[in-house]
Design goal:
By secondary structure, the protein is α/β, with parallel strands linked by helices. It folds into two domains: 6-159, no CATH class; 166-363, no CATH class. Helix content is 46%, strand content 17%. It has an eight-stranded mixed beta sheet with strand order 3-7-4-8-2-1-6-5. A two-stranded parallel sheet has the order 9-10. Strands 11-12 form a two-stranded antiparallel sheet. The termini are far apart.
């Protein structure tokens, strides 16, 4: 096979499951020219990968372009369907025999088993920043052994893939302004000190923490605009002031801090420490700060009149709860924020008023239902 028409890849040879595989580097500009993706028109049974989720690509491309000096992408895994030859360096040293040149026939087909979204994102990024074309990405080559083996490789590569929790994602995120504000608040605010779970995005009944870092993060996104978040000092000052006033009106939060009651008891009996309510409160905070002359202490003092009990189903069912369980949808955040805004005497937007009208209409039983109840 070793003719003059071959791809040449400097490579390291390894053994996995008794089969050879090769690790190499590929210039970004060559990725889309060499590697192919299965025809998306084929039925799943005849493809070796899932279909490309094109909605993910622009964001991934922007990530590369906006972080040209410190972006990070893991290796792409591909199968070679064609003739290959590995020419090892050295003759006596075992280590050098693992290094060499991988020759691949130009008639061969390179099929991406894992990393098709990375490949598509890189292609999009190069259209904006072609200078990145000479940078490289690691590629792991396996020898193609048919569709069944390629499908099994895809299943195996994704079998134990677990997306990190939203909270630890925020904890380790240093580029995002809202994440930095959330971490600062968790360490410096009297309301949140020692009560923030930074690793998990859900709390067990026995957890000593009362809030999750991801819940605080999303509340900040609701409260402040991107432009406001660009000024870290001003953003943290606004958030500190808002949450300190909120904390004064919810005594259970302080009782957990001084160990008078457990966080599990609070989360079981009340809704105010759950993510949906923190997010709704963040939205309320934005509404207050948008007032011509905002008065945090006077407006938020009315929070103490709200019955946050989960037993208060007449208020929270359909808003913060569905079937007695805490809800998570954007619509539920909106409806919860509406209830809080009404309690504080804040004006609803037209969209909020429409959502409130729809909720009230759904709660009114029809004449037929009234008759059947009788």
């Amino acid at each position: 096979m070793a003719d003059n028409f071959s791809y040449l890849f400097p490579a390291i040879r390894g053994i996995q499951a008794g089969r050879e595989y090769y690790v190499s580097m590929c210039p970004l500009r060559l990725l889309s020219k060499i590697f192919v993706f299965d025809d998306e028109e084929l039925v799943p049974e005849l493809r070796a990968q899932r279909t490309l989720n094109r909605s993910r690509i622009p964001e991934m491309s922007r990530y590369i372009v906006n972080n040209k000096d410190d972006y990070t992408f893991s290796a792409i895994t591909a199968s070679i369907d064609g003739q290959v030859q590995f020419d090892a360096q050295g003759e006596h040293n075992v280590t050098t025999l693992r290094m060499g040149t991988l020759k691949v026939s130009m008639d061969a087909k390179f099929v991406v088993n894992d990393g098709q979204h990375r490949q598509a994102a890189i292609k999009g990024a190069l259209q904006i920043a072609p200078e990145l074309g000479e940078e490289t990405i690691a590629v792991v080559f396996f020898i193609d052994r048919g569709l069944e083996r390629s499908q099994q490789m895809f299943a195996d590569l994704n079998r134990y893939a677990v997306r990190p929790s939203a909270s630890i994602g925020v904890l380790y995120e240093h580029r995002n302004a809202a994440a930095n504000v959330a971490k600062h608040l968790s360490l410096t605010s009297k309301v949140f000190q020692n009560l923030i779970e930074t690793e998990r995005s859900s709390l067990s009944p026995r957890s000593r923490k009362l809030f999750t870092l991801s819940a605080l993060y999303f509340s900040i996104l609701e409260m402040l605009t991107e432009k406001e978040l660009e000024d870290f000092s001003s953003a943290t000052k606004k958030c500190h002031a808002f949450w300190e006033e909120v904390g004064k009106q919810i005594p259970e939060w302080n009782q957990v801090r001084i160990s008078a009651i457990t966080s599990g008891d609070v989360r079981r009996d009340f809704i105010h420490s759950h993510a949906i309510v923190l997010q709704a409160l963040g939205r309320v905070g934005k509404a207050i700060y948008d007032l011509p002359a905002p008065n945090l202490s006077r407006t938020l003092a009315k929070l103490k009149n709200i019955d946050w009990s989960r037993q208060n189903a007449s208020t929270w069912e359909g808003r913060a709860m569905v079937g007695g369980a805490m809800a998570k949808s954007a619509q539920n955040v909106t409806l919860t924020a509406i209830e809080i805004k009404k309690a504080l005497g804040l004006k609803l937007s037209s969209d909020e008023q429409a959502a409130e009208d729809a909720l009230q209409a759904a709660r009114v039983p029809t004449n037929k239902q009234r008759k059947s109840d009788k």
